[in-house]
Amino acid sequence: MPTIDVNGTTLAYDDTGGAGPAVVFSHSLFFNRRMFDQQVEKFARAHRVVTYDHRGQGESARDKDLDMDTLAEDAAALIEALELAPCHFVGNSMGGFVALRLAARRPELLRSAVAMSSSADAEGQVENFSALLHHARSFGVPQTADALVHIMFGDTTIASRTALRERWRTHMRGLDAAVIDAAEGVVHRKGVLGELVGTTVPLLILSGAEDHAYSTELSQRIADTAANATHVTVTGAGHSLAVEQPMVVNDHLAEHFAAT
Fold first, then answer.
1. Which of 53, 57, 62, 99 is most solvent-facing, going by the fewest CB within 10 Å?
2. Where are the domains of the chain?
3. One CATH from 3.50.50.60, 3.40.50.1820, 3.40.50.2300, 3.30.70.100 for 3-259
């Protein structure tokens, strides 16, 4: 497992190498870089694909400074250190928060950006999510795994994609308490919708029709605000599009990459 020291932290990452245009995948809260395994398999043939774990999660260094602005600065530093610019940057949920901040603040680093199951607004469910995090701090992260599964997956996955659901439920039961600090950064993030006005980075916004965390309307707000954005809703999926509907997501990504 390679690691790299950037922006005052140490990030774990995987890099397929190759000479094609770079694609960087940025994972969701409560997941890790393995959530993009099927995207790596698809795009590594024609692209240099990099996946990484956010500081405070996965195999990256633990830290208390886990706000979304810091994570976006981490991503920018990673792109620069690995000489990936201009790259396609793809994020699911938390990774989407990072993608939108890069598009607004560091457009020179990007060929395009993709935000899946994400939002440019401040958190609209602070009270509900804060209560869940308080429960996790009091009783342990494993005791919240069932609640996390309901938030992170759509009804179709919960009901019928048993192996997928149980794989990630097991993963979530094994998370350490540091993930609660990462979640606090999500819950208390600032909105960046206003920063996207006039942004010319090509944006693909994907939302899940069964998303229990963020409505499709939040994704449409991004598309309505940014100058060069397209919104597509994916059926049969909730908040974790990259793992719930990987083939559909891959088709949309391939079309987007080819056009940008």
1. 62
2. 3-259
3. 3.40.50.1820
pLDDT tens-digit map of 132-142? 999 999 999 99
The torsion region of residue 85 among left (phi > 0), alpha (psi -120 to 50) and beta comes to beta
Sign of the Cα torsion 238, 243, 244, 249 reads: positive
Write down the mean pLDDT value for the chain: 96
**Which among 148, 26, 40, 33 has a CA at the least distance from the CA of 78?**
26
The secondary structure of 3-58 as a DSSP string is EEEETTEEEEEEE---SSPEEEEEPPTT--GGGGHHHHHHHTTTSEEEEEPPTTST
Inter-residue contact 12 to 33 (CB < 8 Å): yes
Helix residue spans in the chain (DSSP H): 37-43, 68-81, 94-105, 126-139, 145-152, 155-160, 162-173, 178-187, 216-225, 241-244, 246-259
User: What is the edge-to-edge ordering of all strands in the sheet holding 87-92?
Assistant: 3-6, 9-15, 48-52, 22-26, 87-92, 110-116, 203-208, 229-234
Among 61-65, 92-96, 208-212, the range scoring the smallest mean pLDDT is 61-65
Characterize 103-142 residue by residue with b for buried, 16 or more Cβ atoms within 10 angstroms of its Cβ, and e for exposed.
Answer: bbebeebbbbbbbbbbbbeebeeeeebeebbeebeeeebe
Distance CA 93, CA 56 (A): 16
- Residue 123 DSSP label: P
User: How far apart (Å, rounded) are the C-alpha atoms in residues 195 and 100?
Assistant: 9
